[in-house]
Design brief:
With 278 residues, the chain is an alpha+beta fold. The protein has 3 domains: 1-48 and 141-171, T-fold; 60-140, T-fold; 180-278, T-fold, CATH 3.10.520.10. The protein is built from 7 helices and 14 strands.
């Protein structure tokens, strides 16, 4: 078994590979290196901070402009649009104007923030890899891209012949192979303590909460989590964890459950996911 960690996606990404006992450790090392390369690609393509990223290109595009993006970016935007539809607007990657105004994200350029609106009013996915900018707006795919990067890393490890493993990106993780992976979830009231323990096997888990990002700004409490319908900050003292076959789906659904407060939200069943709230 081999384990390595690197800083990506605004967090520490930890990859464990448990390959064929007869194989040389060099093969596992190469598999992990390639898995990190997949994560680095997502970081480069979808960073809100990088002016050259696909996300930044979309944000500065004029209404009516058609952009050719990387297929990975297109898939994330397509999944985000699907989540917006399934959640009736609770999931909204066009929340970036609020996060910029609350100083959770850096301001792109020197202009004023565009009006807050549903993501489906800001862009539309055409045939891959084309995306049409529909109206002024800024998107931030942080609520789904981290999970997508975890899935890419897992698929890379599997292609390399790794028998089992786990990719953990700051609490968004996916395990594969015929072994159990114990996981501890923080207590949102005291994040230094364990609030729940579970075991993963061939599935993903993502957790969202405001305990690290919540703070005072402009005389009110804000956080890096937003109710997609109203644009109001989510500062609930609870945390939401979602189990799903893929990490990108689990990642996105945590925001839906956190905003709705419904651990049985209808979007979960259609995506073979389950949630719990602490």
């Amino acid at each position: 078994m081999m384990r390595r960690a690197q800083p990506w996606l605004g967090t520490l990404v930890d990859i464990t590979a448990d390959g064929d006992p007869q194989a040389e450790s060099q093969a596992e090392s190469q598999a992990i290196t390639q898995a990190f390369a997949e994560i680095a690609l997502v970081h480069r393509l979808m960073s809100f901070h990088d002016a050259a990223s696909d996300v930044s290109r979309l944000n500065v595009a004029a209404p009516g402009e058609l952009l050719e993006l990387h297929p990975h970016t297109w898939r994330v935007l397509q999944l985000a649009a699907r989540m917006t539809e399934l959640s009736h607007g609770l999931f909204n990657i066009a929340c970036a104007p609020r996060l910029v105004d609350w100083q959770c994200l850096p301001r792109p350029g020197t202009g004023e923030s565009p009006p807050y609106q549903p993501a489906l009013a800001v862009y539309r996915c055409e045939q891959s890899p084309m995306v049409c900018k529909l109206a002024p707006g800024w998107v931030d795919v942080g609520g789904v891209a981290k999970g997508y990067a975890v899935d890419l890393a897992v698929e890379s490890l599997q292609r390399a012949g790794v028998a089992s493993g786990c990719v953990n990106a700051g609490g968004d993780l996916r395990a594969f192979g015929e072994r159990d992976w114990p996981v501890a979830v923080r207590d949102p009231q005291a994040p230094q303590r364990v609030g729940a323990q579970l075991v993963l096997r061939n599935e993903a888990l993502a957790t969202s909460a405001s305990y690290f990002s919540a703070r005072r700004h402009g005389g009110r409490q804000v956080s890096a989590l937003v109710d997609g319908r109203s644009g109001e900050p989510l500062v609930t003292p609870a945390s939401v964890s979602v189990r799903a076959p893929r990490c990108d789906i689990a990642d996105a659904l945590t925001k839906v459950v956190l905003a709705s407060g419904d651990a049985r939200h209808p979007a979960l069943a259609g995506l073979h996911a389950a949630a719990f709230i602490i």
